[in-house]
Amino acid sequence: MAADIRKSYGELNAVDGVSFTVAEGEFFGILGPNGAGKTTTLEIVEGLRQADSGHVTLLGENPWPRNPALLPRIGVQLQASSFFEKLTAKEQLLTFGSLYGVGDTTAMEMLELVGLGDKADVREDRLSGGQRQRLSIACALVHDPDVVFLDEPTAALDPQARRNLWDVLREIQARGKTIVYTTHYLDEAEILCDRVAIMDRGRILAMDSPATLVRGLDAPTQVVLQRGAISTEQARAINGVEHAYEDDVSLTISTRKPAPVLSALAERGTLDGLQVRTATLEDVFLHLTGREYRA
């Protein structure tokens, strides 16, 4: 639980009154643009950084000052992971496991969990980016923690590696672990998270399940037809159509009553190539944080 935590650097309010509670076994995501305060928030909760004010309770304990009683119960994967030089994947994991008194068998089981059993004897610096990320997560999990913190675990991965890592994260949660993570990938958060908190400029702007946040946006459904299927004027005349516009490729219809609109299009025989696009978590994110790019 985080209650009104704050952290400033000079005039920058990196974390500005953030509060949230994560339930046991929950997959909780913290989303936000660059500089939103996600990583700082996570570091305060983990006990890696001291808040200026506010209160954090982690598994019934105060994580700051660094609490040795919590260390065996939490696993942390940082944005940038460092490994011991010239060690294989197996040796890396055995080394991390030895810090917690974990036996070799358990460490190897974790290597299998993240899909690196066949890479056990490969040096860490010869693994792909996705494999290194999975090894990093295995190191965070090797001592069987109750809560796992993952800071942008799929950043810079190719689509296939990201999807493979999703399976790992699902398996971790299926084992009863609580997962708190940050990400830039809205499609990922919508699929994986039970609840998300959307942050910007150090504050939480919205927090709920992805489906509830999308419903609350009350965004229109977009029906996309091939250009020339019907005219823009015909589309605008259909009952329930709020807006219709055409570009060089397609005709897009906006409606909050998709059923009668689709029925009318079916009667006109214009369903070939039709696409229906409902609102997503990305729409909620952009609605709350704006569309301006921030490096």
From TrEMBL:
Query: How is the protein disposed in the membrane?
Result: Peripheral membrane protein
A biological-process GO annotation: response to antibiotic
Per the UniProt entry, the signal peptide is none
Cell membrane found in the keyword field: yes
What molecular function terms (GO) are annotated for this protein? ATP binding; ATP hydrolysis activity
- Tell me which residues make up the ABC transporter domain: 1-226
Q: Name one Pfam family in it.
A: ABC_tran
Recorded hits in PROSITE patterns, A to Z, give: ABC_TRANSPORTER_1 (PS00211), ABC_TRANSPORTER_2 (PS50893)
Q: Where in the cell is it found?
A: Cell membrane
Top-rank taxon: Bacteria
The UniProt entry, under Gene3D superfamilies, shows: P-loop containing nucleotide triphosphate hydrolases
Keywords from the UniProt entry: Antibiotic resistance, ATP-binding, Cell membrane, Membrane, Nucleotide-binding, Translocase, Transport
InterPro entries to which the protein is assigned, alphabetical: AAA+_ATPase (IPR003593), ABC_transporter-like_ATP-bd (IPR003439), ABC_transporter-like_CS (IPR017871), ABC_transporter_ATP-binding (IPR050763), P-loop_NTPase (IPR027417)
The primary site where this protein sits is membrane
* The keyword Mitochondrion is annotated on this UniProt entry: no
User: What are its GO cellular component terms?
Assistant: plasma membrane
Family the entry assigns: Belongs to the ABC transporter superfamily.
Q: Which PANTHER family match?
A: ABC TRANSPORTER ATP-BINDING PROTEIN (PTHR42711), ABC TRANSPORTER ATP-BINDING PROTEIN NATA (PTHR42711:SF5)
Protein's UniProt name: ABC transporter ATP-binding protein
